[in-house]
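Email to the structure team, subject: Palmitoyl-protein thioesterase ABHD10, mitochondrial model.

Hi all, the expression group asked for a predicted structure before they design truncation constructs. Nothing fancy, just the tokens so they can compare against earlier work. One-line instruction: predict Palmitoyl-protein thioesterase ABHD10, mitochondrial, return tokens.
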Amino acid sequence: MSDQMPDSAPQFLTVGEGEAAREIAMLVRPAQAGNGAPALVWLSGYRSDMSGTKAVELDGLAAELGLACIRLDYSGHGLSGGSFRDGTISRWLEEALAVIRHVAPDRVILVGSSMGGWIALRLAQELARQGGVTLDGPKLAGPKLAGMVLIAPAPDFTSELIEPNLRAKERKSLAERGYFEERSQYSPEPNIYTRALIEDGRKNRVLDGIIETGCPVHILQGMKDADVPHAHAMKLVEHLPADDVVLTFVRDGDHRLSRPGDIALLLSAVKGIIRSSTNRQMPV
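Reply from the structure team: attached below.
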């Protein structure tokens, strides 16, 4: 599918002001004329970008069905500017929200992988607050959320999966250097977790109450995921009691879920959300 895609040049959007300003790269596929289905929005995981296998396959599905597709690189990732070490959930959430509001689709289906699942859940909360007035002033309008597909979602991973398992030397490094490093099985470069990321993660917790997305949610989770245990996906479902939620376990699936069979499951899940979100028959 992906080899049928035309090459497209990234666009850049400035997010933030002053020293916090950074150039965020995005790839935006417009919908075919007259196609009123929701736009697909890809949200990558930690240290992943919009050129990964799942992101490219999702864009290929959008091309096949004539849908809009929005991909972005968070600051410090891929083609975007900014330092990775400055990254926090709040910062990356701000960027995703800015890109979605810039493109301004009427409806969106959020497809989030790993940390992108956390960003998707926070986006749902932020979009639900649109149009209201808060102490910070009026909220900007945003699109309606038509559905969500979460792949090995890692909501609250800083407080749920990292902090409880910190070793003494990692705590010492956080205190003295402001970060600690961990070997990555996906890259020769180590993963870096900063004190700012961990502290900000506490402010963005979603597993401390009911999460009301107001849309269908399909979760795909590998049972041999060494990074996000499948019990974490089950815990997430407990916090989504009001929504139409499907949880699909892949018995031999790892964290990436990027094998051909995994990709087929992902595209099938997205098609299912598209069907449930549109009144007219879609060729899916």
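Residues 260-277 form the longest helix (18 residues). Residues 1-7, 131-135 have pLDDT under 50 and may be disordered. Ping us if the truncation boundaries need rechecking.
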